[in-house]
Amino acid sequence: MVKTIIIEEHGGAEKFKLVDREVGEPGPGQIRIRHHACGLNFIDVYQRSGLYPMQLPHAMGMEGAGVVEAVGEGVTHLKVGDRAAYASMPPGAYCEARVMPAAQVCPLPDAISFEQGAAMMLKGMTVEYLFHRTTPIAKGDFVLFHAAAGGVGLLACQWAKSEGIRLIGTAGTDEKCQLALEHGAEFCINYRNADWVSTVRELTGGKGVHVVMDAVGKDTFDGSLDCLRPLGMMISFGNASGPVPPFNIGALGPKGSLKITRPTLFTHIADHATCQAMAAHLFEKVVSGAVEITIEQRFPLAQVADAHRALEGRQTTGQTVITVG
Ligand code: NDP
């Protein structure tokens, strides 16, 4: 029996239940992993609230790290005793141990701790595809990145710096802006008390940025389009402030033949080889020191509701882990 967090209905953080569950043996293509930690992601909030509906009851959590305890038939890239980490569908990482598909589980280098592994897989591979698999971004290009002091944000600041990309961040407090700057953002604007669209224009000599990476959604979407230069690319990849309302695609023409995409990590990592290659690229960035994974908040499994309240309440910065055991 293992301790597992489930929800039986969508709603607020009070909906979490800590239950004891049988964990079982892995079938073909599966492994059993015993977690040392799991990650906290804003997608967990959408799944809990019902913005991204799930069939209920359902386990929760999309990212974790630990030791492989058992391996099912046909799994060749992992063996019993391996250190491993993953970002994976279906949800179910908020637990002591689980049986899960092996394809998206990656061997974790010794230089990366379990907590770092648990905190970085979903957000780190997201940053990998944003900078390398979504639109061409050249050295010296400007990228506007909202919520730059968040989990994905602090990784994006460091990644951009390591690639010579000029990242303009936004964040909700001056302290968060300072943190983004310390992690490699070239500029950071407190978007709660500044006209950030005009500031972005000024910082780019009136031209606008080449790319916007916007996962704040409803509150920033329109302004983000106004920050782009002609032929610029809008990457809308999340909804922390609420979903983007339906919009008129015809508006992209007069704004300068803008492009727009709405990507998800899980499309990118659906293919085993691509997932392992993205993870290898991420590990290389972390092991080389180009991207540092620091854990800013820790919550025990039984207090996952407090972790969600902090994340939704804009109280967290950088990476948060749920500690297990
Ligand atoms: P963060 O740690 O970035 O937390 C979200 C941040 O959004 C907050 O800290 C806050 O920063 C900002 N924010 C702005 N408005 C609001 C609001 N009304 N309520 C709450 N927060 C708000 O979360 P993650 O790093 O886990 O994820 C960042 C975003 O990236 C999310 O939208 C997530 O869904 C998306 N994502 C998308 C993926 C994809 O493949 N499509 C994969 C991974 C993440 P501040 O106070 O500075 O404004």
General description of the model:
Residues 11-322 form the Enoyl reductase (ER) domain. Keywords: NADP, Oxidoreductase. It comes from Thetidibacter halocola. This protein is α/β, with parallel strands linked by helices and 325 residues long. The protein has two domains: 2-123 and 266-323, Alpha-Beta Complex (Quinone Oxidoreductase, Chain A, domain 1), CATH 3.90.180.10; 135-262, NAD(P)-binding Rossmann-like Domain (Rossmann fold, 3-Layer(aba) Sandwich), CATH 3.40.50. The chain has nine helices and 16 strands. The strands form three sheets. Strands 3, 5, 6, 7, 8, 15 and 16 form a seven-stranded mixed β-sheet that branches. The protein has a six-stranded parallel β-sheet with strand order 11-10-9-12-13-14, with helices on both faces. Strand 9 (142-145), helix 3 (151-163) and strand 10 (166-171) form a beta-alpha-beta unit. Helix 2 (114-132) crosses helix 8 (272-287). The relative contact order is 0.16. Bound molecules: NADPH dihydro-nicotinamide-adenine-dinucleotide phosphate.
